[in-house]
Amino acid sequence: MGTRYPAMRALVPRFLAAAALGVQSLSAALPPAPLPPAPALLTPAPPAPAASPSGALWHPPLGYPLRVSAAYSLPDGPYRAGHRGIDLPAVEGLEVRTPATGTVSFVGTVVDRPLISVRVDDRTVLSLEPVTSELREGDRVVRGEAIGTVASGGHCLAACLHLGVRVDGAYVNPMRFLRARPVLLPW
Fold first, then answer.
1. Separation of alpha carbons 112 and 79, rounded Å
2. Least crowded by CB within 10 Å, which of 67, 128, 143, 187?
3. Domain check: are 11 and 65 in the same one?
4. Regions of the chain short of the pLDDT cut 70
5. What is the pTM of this model?
């Protein structure tokens, strides 16, 4: 061990003593190492330009804090199996608020679930399901406004609210509109 590893030389007697006492783990023979101070690696950045025309982040449809029970997953491209949105834990009858200002583009039932879609801008449409609503197509809604209640149907049944977002017709991860992008700082 020579002079290249003086710290190791100090630990050898502890390892030998631990072995003689039958200690099962060598880490038990080591003194606890102090943890270095954690650097602030992530700080919130300004929202991505795609968050909304005004640049503001979207409002969580069930309020704060935002809780996600199933994440967005599109592993092998747009035509394969995946989860094209996020699920938020919910119960039937819970009030749903619009995440962004826009115009209602669809209210109705698709297959076995009621849903509502809001066109946010020329490129972006958000859909919430299962949601029952008294709104009609063409109604203007404002970010955070109550637009309906959680119903049952679809893959959520009555245990979650599904939020899907399409930009230029392609599904994207809704979290990009709900959370600020982190910025990595240099060390």
1. 22
2. 187
3. no
4. 1-55
5. 0.68
